[in-house]
Design goal:
The complex is a heterodimer. By secondary structure, chain A is α/β, with parallel strands linked by helices. Chain A contains twelve helices and nine strands. A five-stranded parallel beta sheet of chain A has the order 2-5-8-1-9, sandwiched between helices. In chain A, strands 3-4 form a two-stranded antiparallel ribbon. In chain A, a hairpin with a 4-residue loop joins strand 6 and strand 7. Chain B is an alpha/beta fold. In chain B, the strands form seven sheets. Chain B has an eight-stranded mixed beta sheet, with helices on both faces. Chain B has a three-stranded mixed beta sheet with strand order 4-6-5, with helices on one face. Chain B starts with 8 loop residues before the first helix and ends with a helix. In chain B, helix 27 links the parallel strand 21 and strand 22.
């Protein structure tokens, strides 16, 4: 089934476990329990799911949710053709049919009515009613639903309903502790650990400012970007400004503080 | 005229050339000449003597000559001897005007001023500013005759050395301008201003100072503490402007971190360190103490031992700070003095400070130039202690004591202490390091216990809020100029307001119909929906055409509706000045009564609509007393308490509009609403009894309106002054309306509001 193969994760993604999350996920998958991963942006949520899909050797279908997304974007819709209509499965339906892990990234970005369509798939029923098509789709035995959710930055208006939240088991992610983060970044980019340690120091200073003018701290992903630039021969100070400071803030005071941290760390 | 006999023929020649008969001058002449001959060329000496001779013949006694003879060599050394002509020209101008009593103070401080300015060009600027001050403040009667001396000039001359030390030349010019503009017609105040006796003069001085002002970088410093050190505390600035002898030193206690209010860039041998980085160094040092220093008992140490312990402990925490952020070493070293090993003579002076400063440098600077074996040994021991971990204050104390014992000299007890190059100004005073078990007799830390138990007096009323006022002449704000006192409005009988509403029952009915029309109920169409409540025909047809034509049609052919909420906050600000007591033209009612009716109706109407609304009145009695009276708050109901306050509305005093607008703005700004409206009801232009130029308060009001606009607040003015057109446009731009027939106010005000917010 070539259709299924295209969703398989071919090579092993690098993922450094922070705790027992790998074993716990395997247990959840064994029981086909829906999983929710929470945590700030760029801390490794998506990488973790990718890694688990590879480890379990199951196809992975990822959907990035946005405000304009409707239920039919997930479930599927009729397309018009010259001589009639044709049904096209949405990503959620495809995953339920072929037995894939369906990963809905940043689920709260989607509209409330959209999140409700996943309800029947996430309890004991494990079915997906396709009302337009008049089909009741029984989910494949291997199908599992995973959502990610960043409780930090969204407005008060955007939160998951209790009825949605209470269908999931959950993992809470955070930025890894410094030693681990140094290891991750240096493994990911091949940069010497000494330099990476300095980057992580700067990352910590940024995270201390969360809530004081910064919506989110400097993520591991940004640190990886900075390390990548340094590895390519860019001056460390420039790389930090470009990858760590400019993307996250327009506030001159915060910029001055972070730049001071960079200047006193890289000398 | 007494003739003084000089032994040396040359000196006699000079004395004859001076041609001066004052005995006091003769006493010091020889000394002055000795100094002058060392600095001035032969030509210049002759000019010097001629000038002094001229001063002696001005008829102002010996003081000007004495001051000149004494100070000029220093001035010439600092600013060049060619400044003689401009200085003499200025003195001539003073002599010709009634200001000749300022000549002596001017000459007495000229030396100190020149020493600080250090260039002829700068000194010329100083002379220009002084001349400008003199010209503008010298009083005249009938406009053509200068008769009164400038009250502020002598004080200005006396304060000049301190002023040029704190201010740049342009800052000094602004400071003088401010004083002249605001106190020209008030001789006593003018004296106080230029003598630095007024709060104003301090405030403006503070604003004009050179360097990095704490107020400008406060947030950066907060962020710095939080981001780099996960620390944070109240930052309390202390002033450095007025302590000449004892410069305050940074410190921290449980009330906060005390740091200077302004820091100049430091221009050391190791490069320029910005004022901001100096602040950061001070804070980093304090953070180091808070993290790693432990208190130790001071009673058993001598003051010298304590000083040594402090030096070693400071170095320990700085090394630990540098461990966290290596770049701090550059900043610390640039701010740290580098004393020369031989600059202190241990036979005649107490060298302990010098030794400790060198020690401190060596502990921080791996490339230090010192060769003293004891110093090197202790440097090595220090780093060995720190190698294993963070060490401790205790270990540092032991090390410091050993050092003091090894290096002690008899001369350390001498009164003459070597201070040069030993002051490390980013370090705090280490008061947190010591615990005293008994009250010490050589420290002043201990407050009188009877003072500590005093309780602060109970607060009786709201403290005034101070607002700046815009000065259009100089295009600057006058800091903390107007004091606004806020109070609850007095109460009257709420039934009066109900009677007024009853009187306008017909109008109220008409309004009610209008209100029902604009109550939030409109539907807004949302188009381009894949799923919705209705088919959007336009889009559906377009899709069908696309489909028939073989193209991929757009599936978003539905539309839906949502109800549109109304999200408006309004603050109604009433001018309650004296003029409201006048009768309205062609009627029996006063303007105040009409306003009362109008406001009652409007408040009722807004209450029906459900918009949050606040009402306040204001009037002023000079800038020191702007009264802002609270009638209704945003969350207060339209009930008897509010009606009672409205019923007691009374008029009096003047209209200082800018301060009231700013105060109203500070309530509106934090409200969450799509539209914030400040509706001002007034019957005239802004005016107050302490302001003679009518344009000033208008410009200030306009500035206040601009400030409000910047905060997202729309200001709208309803003026009852038929001749208002000329100034309301200037103040409010397009947001105003003039009501010609005041008797129609009760009807017009609610209608105006409705049309504004529809």
């Amino acid at each position: 089934m070539s259709n299924k193969d295209q969703y398989l994760v071919k090579t092993e993604p690098f993922y450094q476990a922070q705790g027992r999350e790998v074993a716990l996920y395997e247990a959840a998958y064994g029981a086909r329990l829906p999983v929710m991963v929470k945590g700030p942006t760029g801390c490794g949520k998506s990488r973790f799911i990718e890694y688990m899909a590879w480890k379990l050797n199951k196809p992975l279908i990822t959907v990035a949710c946005n405000e304009d997304m409707t239920a039919s974007d997930l479930v599927g819709r009729y397309l018009l053709e010259a001589n009639g209509t044709r049904w096209l499965d949405g990503p959620l339906t495809t995953a339920a049919r072929i037995g894939a892990i369906c990963y809905l990234d940043e689920i709260v970005e989607a509209r409330q009515d959209t999140t409700v369509v996943i309800h029947p798939l996430t309890d004991h029923r494990r079915v997906l009613p396709l009302d337009k098509k008049g089909e009741l789709l029984e989910a494949h035995a291997d199908f599992q639903l995973v959502i990610s959710y960043n409780p930090g930055y969204q407005s008060l208006m955007k939160d998951l309903k209790q009825s949605t939240k209470q269908r999931f088991t959950a993992f809470s992610f955070d930025y890894p502790p410094p030693e681990l983060e140094i290891g991750i970044i240096s493994r990911e980019t091949g940069l010497a650990e000494g330099t990476v340690a300095k980057l992580v120091t700067i990352g910590q200073t940024g995270r201390n400012l969360k809530g004081h003018g910064l919506d989110e701290g400097i993520s591991t992903r940004l640190l990886v970007h900075a390390a990548t630039l340094i590895k390519r021969g860019v001056d460390a100070g420039d790389a930090c400004r470009m990858a760590l400071v400019q993307p996250i803030t327009d506030d001159p005071d915060i910029r001055a503080t972070l730049e001071h941290a960079i200047d006193t760390t890289f000398i | 005229m007494t003739k003084t006999e000089y032994q040396h023929p040359l000196m006699k020649g000079y004395w004859d050339r001076l041609d001066c008969g004052f005995g006091k001058v003769a006493d010091v002449f020889e000394d002055c000449m000795a100094e002058a001959l060392a600095v001035l060329s032969l030509d210049d000496v002759n000019h010097y003597l001629d000038a002094a001779g001229t001063l002696g013949k001005m008829g102002r006694g010996a003081d000007p000559v004495l001051a000149f003879l004494e100070k000029w060599p220093a001035v010439a050394a600092a600013a060049g001897s060619d400044m003689l002509a401009p200085v003499m020209a200025f003195i001539g101008a003073m002599q010709k005007s009634p200001n000749s009593q300022a000549i002596a103070p001017f000459l007495q401080t000229l030396g100190a001023v020149a020493r600080r300015l250090q260039s002829g060009e700068q000194l010329q600027h100083y002379l220009d500013i002084a001349a400008d001050l003199m010209k503008r403040t010298t009083g005249s009667i009938h406009g053509h005759h200068s008769t009164f001396p400038s009250p502020g000039l002598p004080d200005f001359c006396e304060q000049a050395p301190r002023l040029v030390g704190l201010l740049s030349i342009s800052g000094l010019k602004n400071w003088v301008d401010y004083g002249v503009r605001n106190y020209r017609n008030h001789p006593e105040r003018q004296k106080d201003y230029f003598g630095l006796q007024l709060a104003d003069s301090h405030a403006v001085l503070q604003r004009e100072r050179h360097g990095t002002l704490f107020a400008d970088v406060e947030r950066k410093l907060d962020l710095y503490l939080r981001a780099l050190w996960q620390d944070g505390d109240q930052l309390v600035p202390y002033t450095t402007a007025f302590d000449e002898l004892r410069k305050p030193i940074p410190y921290y206690d449980k009330l906060g971190m005390r740091i200077p209010d302004v820091l100049d860039d430091s221009d050391g041998a190791d490069g320029v360190i910005s004022g901001l980085d100096r602040y950061r160094a001070i804070l980093a040092h304090m953070v180091g103490h808070r993290r790693w220093s432990k208190q130790i008992i001071a009673d058993n140490y001598s003051p010298f031992q304590r000083m040594a312990v402090e030096f070693f402990e400071d170095c320990r925490i700085e090394n630990l700070l540098i461990r966290a952020y290596p770049g701090l070493r550059r900043i610390f070293l640039a701010l740290h003095p580098l004393p020369d090993e031989t600059e202190c003579d241990p036979e005649t002076t107490s060298c302990l400070r010098h030794r400790l400063a060198m020690m401190s440098r060596a502990l921080l600077d791996p490339q230090h130039p010192y060769t003293n074996p004891i110093l090197l040994e202790f440097t090595a021991r220090f780093h060995a202690t720190l190698e294993a971990g963070t060490s401790s204050t205790r270990e540092m104390a032991d090390l410091a004591l050993a050092y003091v014992t090894r290096t002690r000299r008899q001369t350390d007890q001498l009164a003459k202490v070597h201070f040069d190059n030993t002051v490390i100004d980013y370090r705090d005073d280490n008061r947190h390091l010591w615990v005293f078990i008994e009250d010490s007799d050589d420290e002043e830390f201990f407050d009188d216990p009877s003072k500590q138990n005093k309780k602060p007096a109970e607060i009786q009323s709201l403290p005034p809020r101070h607002y700046p006022e815009w000065d259009s002449a100089s295009q600057t704000y006058r800091p903390d100029w107007a004091s606004v006192y806020e109070a609850l409005h007095a109460k009257g009988n709420p039934a009066d307001i109900d009677k007024l509403l009853l009187k306008h029952a017909a109008l109220a009915k008409q309004l009610k119909r209008l209100l029902d029309l604009i109550k939030p109920q409109e539907k807004v169409r949302i188009r381009y929906q894949e799923e919705g409540s209705d088919l959007d025909l336009d889009v559906a047809l377009r899709s069908l055409i696309d489909f028939k034509g073989g193209a991929q049609p757009d599936p978003r052919i539905n539309m839906s509706h949502r109800t549109d909420g109304r999200n408006i906050t309004v603050l109604l600000l009433l001018d309650l000045s004296e003029s409201l007591n006048e009768k309205a033209a062609g009627g029996q009612q006063t303007i105040l009564e009409l306003s009362q009716e109008a406001v009652s109706l409007l408040a009722w109407a807004i209450d029906c609509l459900g918009d949050p609304c606040a009402i306040a009145g204001f009037h002023s009695n000079t800038r020191h007393e702007v009264r802002y009276q609270h009638i209704k708050g945003f969350s207060e109901r339209w009930d008897d308490t509010v009606k009672a306050r409205l019923a007691a509305m009374a008029a009096g005093w003047s209209t200082r509009m800018g301060a009231a607008l700013r105060h109203a703005g500070h309530y509106l700004a934090p409200r969450r609403a799509d539209k914030k409206i400040l509706l001002l009801l007034t019957d005239g232009a802004p005016a107050d009894i302490d302001v003679s130029e009518p344009d000033h308060l208008r410009a200030d009001a306009r500035k206040a309106v601009e400030e409000l606009a910047a905060q997202g607040i729309t200001t709208f003015c309803l003026s009852l002054d038929p001749k208002a057109d000329e100034y309301v446009r200037e103040i409010f731009g397009n947001h105003w309306r003039v009501l010609d027939r005041i008797e129609r106010l009760p009807e017009q005000l609610p209608l105006l509001y409705l049309s504004l917010t529809r």
